[in-house]
Amino acid sequence: MPPTAPPEAPLRAAPxxxxxxxxxxxxxxxxxxxxxxxxxxxxxFIVSADIARTMNSPGGLIxxxxxxxxxxxxxxxxxxxxxxxxxxxxxxxxxxxxxxxxLTGFLYGWTLFLVIQTGTIAAVAVAFAKFLGVFVPAVNDxxxxxxxxxxxxxxxxxxxLSSQRVVGIVIxxxxxxxxxxxxxxxxxxxxxxxxxxxxxxLGLVLLGLTIGxxxxxxxxxxxxxxxxxxxxxxxxxxxxxxxxxxxxxxxxAMVGSLFSADAWNNVTFAAAExxxxxxNLPLALALGTGGVTLLYLLANFAYLSVLKLSEIQNAPQDxxxxxxxxxxxxxxxxxxMAGAILISTFGCINGxxxxxxxxxxxxxxxxxxxxxxxxxxxxxxxxxxxLAVQGVWTALLTLTGSYNQLLDYVIFAALxxxxxxxxxxxxxxxxxxxxxxxxxxxxxxxxPGLYMxxxxxxxxxxxxxxxxxxxxxxxxxxxxxxVYYLWRASQKRSSS
Length: 496
Fold this sequence. Notes:
With 496 residues, the protein is mainly alpha-helical. It has one domain: Amino acid/polyamine transporter I (Up-down Bundle), CATH 1.20.1740.10. The protein has 18 helices and four strands. Residues 1-7 and 13-17 have low confidence and may be disordered.
């Protein structure tokens, strides 16, 4: 039986203009490459330094990555049911709209556009430019056109142009243009760069665990594996209550690892372009997340085999991967790692740009985003205007040049919607029991329930561990409520 209509009908019909349509031209390999390519950016080569400082032990570092692996794979196995049942453009937006109503779907799309997708693209673009600076020192973060400081929770952001930010904007513009030309061009870039960066990460793992092994580092790290974990209680910055320091540290440390493993859900955004989606979407999610998170875990064992914990904690500019290769190959290692990260971030940006625009397209078709974003080009069969709007806003975010702050805003907001999507999964089982489900969530209801509980727990911990950023992320989500009703009101006036 087809899904019943949501309780609140869209405001408008599809835009009345010459309209193309999506083509199902993504194979299982292409879809898996989109999962892998969207996940592997620069994070795995950087964030372990901050995690090591927060957890202060080799065992704590590994525990954070094990938890990230289990949570991510559990989420992907659960999302597979929704993706196979509703393989439409927009993915998670559609799941939330169908399961919890138009407002919840809009809040996700709104937050995705403002922070989650565009903020991630901007952060990775800045990371690309940072590592380009290894080869071209003129690419740096010195502002040649300052635009003033903007106060934000947790500090301030200095707006302006630097050569680093200009490079980030140019890369965003270039890959947006490539995606506008059609899915064929975009997917070839995705497949080529994803293959290259997966091979580079695998090479780092194999080298670190074999010829790069450092006996002194191994003895230091693995003979004191759980030493110096945070202990006791730490007062939280609000409510004047104390939480066990280890719990707070663990939650705060997972910001970096979850960010590095995020964006696996992007393949659902492009579900309307995947061949045999009922089979290929769940498989791509499982294969992609399982493979990437396993590589991430092994990469951290490689770091611990090459570097002492103190060296990981104090890696220059947190470039742990670079430091590991420098220990193995000397000064040339810095350039090898910088090249690998340039490849990695370039492919990651492409995948994020490709997928995100499909959500804004779906929102526009529902009448809650700019109408022109709901058009598909008859020539290229992609949502050109949705890509353009996304590109402009992402470029503006790149002017902030802030990697860490964008990361903190992104993760809390993303966790909120991961939890809500699991609520939608449970609700749709009850609301639409006869909906065709070619794939049913693995271990239902235990695995989806544990995933929902884990994501909710981490979100709550972040409210205590990083309240400024977490509440700012929550405020961004809630600001979408008046925007939604104002948008609906204006659309009703224009259609009357």
